Structures are given as structure tokens and as C-alpha cells.
């Protein structure tokens, strides 16, 4: 195309052009260029013109000349948005620049169901992308229902959902829940056209939830909710069924471990693939095809392409893994028996290539066996040990097969559970004061102290590093000297991640509250354990005051419980059981469960060969929606390897495991959210030594220690009255804020963004005590759970403990520059007239000697002692103060000149009786 024709077509038609055309426009006859990043090339930038506007920016566009005789300027726009529809097709929304640093995205949906909106800038997802939204075909004015309680639940835990009646007019709303048990239903009108509904199933099984408006079922009703039993146990296997292609050229065994391979699909999606020795003896790549067409395979050594790389391969339509084409058969997906094998078959012959993963969760950890009876047809059996309802998840090529998840009713005899309990009286911890050495201890065996770090934040917001000492092998103590009275925040981190229990509350001075809600517990023994050896955890009761601590263990065998009191408000608990299986650890203080109790702990069999396994090439970090992998070497161990990944929000997903070469396996997982993920790697049902492995996904700068709550909603409140509190997340990074309220009634609760963080509003309906838990990225903030007393009339039925919660994905907030930073003096209650002082140093002093006096403020309340000495030539050389306990002080000073001195002694802002003193030297 001639230069002028191209120019006119662009300016006249405002047409979208491609990269090569724009490059030729600027390169032709002028030997000029402008640059674009690799990311921009991949994204194919949108190039458009705007006539009659001159907004030239040399540095911003990378242009170094002005087009002749033209007032049109070209912009390279690297913003991109796509909508993935329920059918899998991709649609383009309209992006509008608001000219104020923001853009608007407009989209008119054409399908009903869940859509995903991908928003990218310079090729990278913006924070929160992809966003999910649901499109309903029903016009407004109809009643709809949504929420997790319409799909699944756990027996003994409330199932929640919401009904929207906005614009529906008048009509009666009726609810019914049918299932294996009577389910108590509670409703709350949110006063905004929606109704919050909760029902409590007490037995596992399938529940039919019917929602009627004007005697007619609403759309989707009756809903089928699958409820599993208490204490769900999970087992999972992965079966490889990947496409394998031989690499061109020869590669030695030594080279395999130093090579990295990736495959790029026609759509541009790039993911890692595995190098492995094929049955033919050649080296090949193994991957799961996700789309048909030409794929580009890159094999690199130390970041440089090897010979013949990159090369292309073509994937046929029939080779792409399709979960819809997997056929499953067998009655074991509907019902089963305990203590025996329950078998079903999976036929993947016509479903293309893809990895098959199976997980079973229910009242027991069902043992899974898999046999390949003939090419592409698998015979799978599971053996549960407890009766009840089980959920079977069957995925192929990362998608559920038709009918999955399956609900299976298992009948038969279960195993017996045994219980052991001990009780110990906890004395109040010694009172700490300003200026004294404060100590917080914890036990963490098997770590190096070099990776531990601690900080202490005062009530005024000043943070300082604290010293960590190793008292004995595995026992550590944090030491700090406070400068203020009040609640301090002690953060203890291991390799930049908070240890269990951190951040801790540490009150300097008298305790302001007491009770079970202030007890903390944490440690490996509350997460997992091993049969036949002692498993340990910590309990901190310092903040809760005096009381009785009861520790119970319930499970397949009797427990031996040991208890060590550290005499500083903390204790070390260890327990030993003989049988593996699921145990419940209950911790009660003065007959009340502490937060998060009872803890569910899986005790694995004795380690066996699991200690031989080692982890290789474990990544430092990962990114959302990008496959991440690492390797496991068995080192001669014989058995079955499996892995699960647990996200920060608590969702568990299966890892895909594949044999690479000999006894080396790769473990791959796809993180779906930012934050710290735990990867559980087990061998023969036992955690390998490094498990659970922890990895940060995306940018995880959320710090629960920096989050604070304040406001009237944390004090005494009235029933029926809206009350609020502020959760200050300034300088705490972005994370998941979860607020949960337990009490005698449900509360209408909402959360709105404000300048310094988030405002939570709630309305209690029944008098009594409520406990508000505030968690940031899964960790309680300091002071949480907060104890709140509601008084007033009873406006609702008081039943069992009710739970209300709200969860918000926060954005990064920064405190205003003008805002006062630093400590704020506490409000002291004291009386300087009750302070007494005596000693020769208040009457007469001697040159170059220690002149001494004492100050007694034991009856004068709490405050700060100030001592100043001024002489004929200015301040004296040296003054020393020592606190002897109970507000008794010893003071001495040294003077170098003769003359008359003034000694000032103040308790807070007030002089003590006799001050100022006149002293002759």
C-alpha cells in the first residue's frame, strides 16, 4: 500500500490497524522508528487516531519527530479486556477512556450464567482480574436466590444463602428444607430488598431447598444441596494421560535436569511442560493439549534455546482433553459399604488427552486404588472406614466430568472413637510495667533461629525490633522493654510468614479484660501429627487471666497428654496416640471453647519411608492462574505420592502428579488467588519432611499486625440500634478481611470502604454477649475476637449460637501524610499528693559522689516519674533512676561544681509534695 493511501485510510476511517502497518507508516522513507515492548507485541496493541487533538508527548510515545502537515497523533493502547462466556467463547467488551486516569468497561451479555472478565494492562492482569459475574435471563421484578448454602454444606454448620425480592411486588415468600434431618431455618430481612437465610443441617445427605413466591417455585427451586458429615477427610489420586512428543535431536540423561520446556498454544497461552524419557528410549515432552492448532515448543538450557528449539507441533481437535466425553459407570458412585472395596470404571478413550484427578471426602479418609484394565479404561475403587455421605470429585483436563461431584451414601460398621481429657489451673501471669523486661515464649522444634524475626508495636503505633533468644532446643523467647502502658502487638515471623498464633496481644500494666476469647493456641501439633511420638503445640493464657484450662483429645485411640507450665502465661502441650486417623483437639478455658477450637488434626502412620523423599526446584513465588511446578525425588522409597494445595481462603484443590524419570516426580498446581498457599505432599498417607510447603502467590504484603479496630461497635451496644466500628487497614497491604460475629442472634452486618480502611455496621437483635472475630488473610488481628455486650429488648428468638459474617477483598491504603504518627500517651489515673520521697540527696549533696534518695508512689496510681537537677552552671553531670517494683524508685546523681542546686521530682505533670527541693553542695 502506498504511504499516502495508508495514511488517509487510517486518518479518514479511524480504522484499527495492526503493528506491521503502523511500523511501515513511520519507517517509510524517514529512517525513524518507535519502540514497543515484547509484552506489547504479544498483546497486539490497538492503534487508533484522534483527529483535531494535539497531545504530543515525546517521552511517553517513544517518537522522535512530528508527522508533517498533520495534527493527528497516534496512541499505542496496551489496555485489553475480554469476557469469557459460559459457553467458553470469548467476547470483546467496549473500553472507554474517562480521561482522568480511569477507564470504563461496558459489556452487553448474550448468554446466561457465570462470565469471567479478564482485564490486562501491558499484558499483565490488573489486581483482582479475572472478575466473575453472573448473568440471569430473568427480567427484574422476579425473585431470585443465590449463595453457597443452595449447593453444599457441612452437617452441624449453618448453610447460608440470600433471596432477592427487589421490585417483585407483593406476594408471600415461603421456604422449606427437606432432607435426612430436621433443619432449623432462620431468616433476616436486610431492609434492602434481600433476605438472609440460614438453615442448620444436623445429618449429612442431600437436602432439597424449596423457595416459593406467591405459591410458585422461583427459578432453580427446588435447589439440591449436598451436605457432608462433620470432620471431612480427603483422599486424592492423579492419573497421567498426557500427549507425548519426541524431541528432535539427541539429549543425554545428564541434560534432562538442566533443561526447561514450555509450550505456547495458538491463543498465546504459555505453560510449562515436562521432559521425560519415553518408552521408546527417546527424550520427549509431555503436555495436556487445551486447544487445537499449531503449538510452539521451546526447550531452553540456562535461558538459551537448545539446538532445533523452538519447534512446532500440530494438535488435532480429537486430541484436546474434553471432560464432557468421559464416561463413568458403576453403582459405587451412588452407594458404598465400609471396610470393603467399592469399584467404578472411568472410560477416557474418546475424551482426548488430559490428566485425570480423583478426590473423595467424607467422614473417613477412604483409601483409593486405581487399575488400568485396558487402554483408556480405568477401574477405580475406594475403601471408607466410617459410614456417612461422601463427595467424589472427578476431574479430567482440569474440568469436572458430567455428574461430578457425586454424592455417595456409605453404610456399614464404623470404627470406635476414644476420648482423653486433662485439666490444669492457670494462675494469673506476673504483671508487667513500663521499663521492665517483658517476655513471650513459644516452642517451634526443627527450625533455625536465624530465620526468626520479631517486632513489637506500642499502643501509640511505634514499631521496634525485639530480641529473640533460644532458651533451649526448640524453645524461644521474645524480649522487649515497653515505654508505654497498654496493649502491645508482638509479631513473630519465620521466613517472613507469621508463626501460628502471631500477631500476639501483650498488655503492659493491668489487664483490661479476661476470658476464653483471649486464649491463643498454635503449633504443628494442632495441624498434623504422627502416631507413636509426641506432637507439640503452644497455649498462651496470659491475656485471659486466671482460670481452668481443659485439654481433650478424641479419636481412634486413647491419647497420652503431657503439660508443661512455663510460669509466664504460656504452656507447652504434647500428646501421643498409637493409631493414625482423624482426631479432634478441644481446648476450653473456664468451660468455654477458645477461638477456633475444636481443632481437627490428622495423625499419620509412623513416618516409614517418607523421610527419604526430598523436594527439588521449589519456586520462590508463583502467580495467579499460571501453572507452577516442582519436583520430588523418592530416593528409593516405595509407595504412593499425593499432593493438595490449600489456598489462603481455605479452598483445597488437587495437585497433578506425574512420573518424569525413574523415581523423580513432578507436582503441578494452578493457584487461583493471591496469598500464602500451603502444599501438602504425602507419601503413603504421611507428610514428607518439608510438608506442608508454603509459597507466596502474587504480591502478598498483607500484614495482620498492622490492622487495628476502634469505634463504639466494640463496646456496649443496644439491641435494634445500628452501631459501627472502623477497621484501620492503613499500611497493612491488600488482603482478605473477614469479620464474623457469634452471639445469641444473627446480626444484619455490612461493610463499606472509608478513607482509613473499612466501616463495619451491624444491628444486634437479642441481648447477651457477642464475640466479633476480625481476621486479615486468615490471622486474627490483635484483640480479636472482641467481646461485646448487647443490652435492651429482645427483638428476635434466642436459640443456639448464631453466626453472621462479611468478607471483603481490601485494597492498599496509606495513612495521610499530615496524620500524626508516633506514640500517644495513655490516659493515666494518678494522684501526685500521695507520693512520698526521702533520702540525704534531697537535702545535701557531695562533689563527685553518688547522692541518693528514694521515691515511693505505690499508692499514687500509675504515671511516669520525672527527675531533673539544675545547678549554678546548668544541668548536673549524671542522673540515674531504677524501678524497684510496685512504683518504688531509687535515684542517685553526681555533681562536679559547688553551689546551690534545684531538684525537681514530678509524678506525671504534677510536682510531688516538697518538690522542687533546694540542695547545697
UniProtKB/TrEMBL annotation:
Protein name: Filamin-A
Claim: Ribosomal protein is one of the keywords in the record: no
Any GO MF annotation of the entry: actin filament binding
Gene Ontology biological-process entries: actin cytoskeleton organization
A single cellular component GO annotation: cytoskeleton
Principal localisation: cytoplasm
InterPro entries per record: Filamin, Filamin/ABP280_repeat-like, Filamin/ABP280_rpt, Ig-like_fold, Ig_E-set
Pfam families, sorted: Filamin (PF00630)
Keyword Repeat (UniProt): yes
Start-end of each Filamin repeat: 80-135, 135-227, 225-315, 318-410, 408-508, 511-603, 620-697, 699-790, 827-921
Localization (cell): Cytoplasm, Cytoskeleton
The organism of origin for this protein: Pieris macdunnoughi
Keywords: Actin-binding, Cytoplasm, Cytoskeleton, Repeat
Family indicated by similarity: Belongs to the filamin family.
